[in-house]
Amino acid sequence: MSRPVNVADYREAARRRLPKVLFEYVDGAAYAEQTLRANVDDFQRLELRQRVMRDVSKINLATTILGRELPMPLLLGPIGMAGMYARRGECQAAAAAKAAGIPFCLSSLTICDVDEVAKVEPPWFQLYMLKDRGFMVEYIARAKAAGCPVLLFTVDLAVPGTRYRDMRTGLSGPAQPFQWLARGIDGIMHPGWLWDVQLNGGPHSFGNIAAAVPEAKGLGDFWGWIGRNFDASLTWDDIAWVKQQWGGPILIKGVLEADDARQALAAGADGIVVSNHGGRQLDGAPSTISALPAIAEAVGGRMTILLDGGVRSGLDVVKALASGADACLIGRAWAWALGARGQAGVAHVIEVIKAEMRVALALTGCPDAAKADKELLVR
Questions:
Q1: Domain for residue 220, yes or no?
Q2: pTM of the prediction?
Q3: The domain spanning residue 63 has which CATH number?
């Protein structure tokens, strides 16, 4: 395969390099994966208006998110187990984001813990609500001590979604003997990954929660603990407690309805992430880009609005800006690149999306990304 030139190429490169259990985990979604497909398809259905004679000799992608000036409206969103796609993968991705001047958002469920990643640059920290409030206090305090500037509080995982791909590979639920054997053979059949990650990329544990599960002998034990400890009793009243523990900017991640966006604003959140967890939770939920306009109308201008889900190009970013987002997070796009080429792949994907944004803005006659609005879209 020739060198990847876009996100789709990186997906194929990751499929070739990674063992099946890992590729299916990052590539898959819940049930029939209807929402996963809708996230991508609905972006493609949006049409951009081609405008001419607008003096687009100078393109400005810069924006400001929560007081931080960014060279482009893009962030690397939280991805679980990234340290299994490349050696100490979260640190490699954080280094690529730092070089590009954009934030890296660290998942709670990562191989590299927050202290290790913070040595590269303090990341935005993604948090789930767990039943053990004592652990939550320590968990949040650890992120604060590491210098994390923003908290992404994910609220769409009251219960884990059912992902059939992970069940088939044995990642979800107890693996059968034949699945262990198949995974072992598959690992051997991917020698580049085997040497880079399995043999030289340890320790292989969920670093952020390792202290809470000292008896864990492998990733499966961590998954079991996590599934048992998601707090399904979470309500909007709990935001005040999280804000009190955190004391800094907080974004509510997992909003798909205008009413919930208003609730987040009323609860004192600094912003929201319009997200359906990449289609990995409620299959049949609307795509994020289709949900965005109503949400932007409800709370736009009063809080930061980010979007993830289905973003595969710089054109998608421009469409999201035109639909009311302040910036986008990419997830699978950088995870595939990490699995294919490590830090160099992530850095390349960021540059590809940046270049695609510049072209899209030039050909829509909008030289300033901050001024992108619904006039860029064919109605």
A1: yes
A2: 0.95
A3: 3.20.20.70
The DSSP symbol for 159 reads S
Where are the strands (E) in the chain, listed by range?
Answer: 63-65, 68-70, 74-76, 105-106, 124-127, 151-154, 250-255, 271-274, 304-307, 327-330
Confirm whether 287 is domain-assigned: yes
Domain that holds residue 256: 7-372
In the chain, the number of structural domains is 1
Decide if 197 contacts 18 (C-beta within 8 A).
Answer: no
Q: How far is CA 285 from CA 37, 93, 232, 277, in A?
A: 11, 29, 19, 10
d(CA 309, CA 318): 14
Residue 91 lies in a domain: yes
Write out the DSSP string of 69-92: EESSSEEE---TTGGGTTTTHHHH
Supply the residues annotated as catalytic: 277
Q: 158 pLDDT band (50/70/90 cuts)?
A: confident
3-state secondary structure of 251: strand
CA-CA distances (angstroms) from residue 99 to 94, 267, 338? 9, 35, 15
Q: How far is CA 141 from the centre of its chain?
A: 22
Neighbours of 168 (CB within 10 A): 14
Residue 378 lies in a domain: no
Helices 7-17, 332-363: crossing angle, 10 deg rounding: 170
* Digit-coded pLDDT (tens) for 89-135: 999 999 999 999 999 999 998 999 999 999 999 999 999 988 888 88
DSSP symbols for 353-368: HHHHHHHHHHHTT--B
Q: What is the pLDDT of residues 239-279, one digit of tens each?
A: 999 999 999 999 999 999 999 999 999 999 999 999 999 99
Residue 166 — φ and ψ, nearest 5°?
-70, -30
CA 160 to chain centre: 17
Alpha-carbon span 18 to 181, nearest angstrom: 17
Helix H or strand E encompassing 199: none
DSSP string, 99-120: HHT--BEEPSS-SS-HHHHHTT
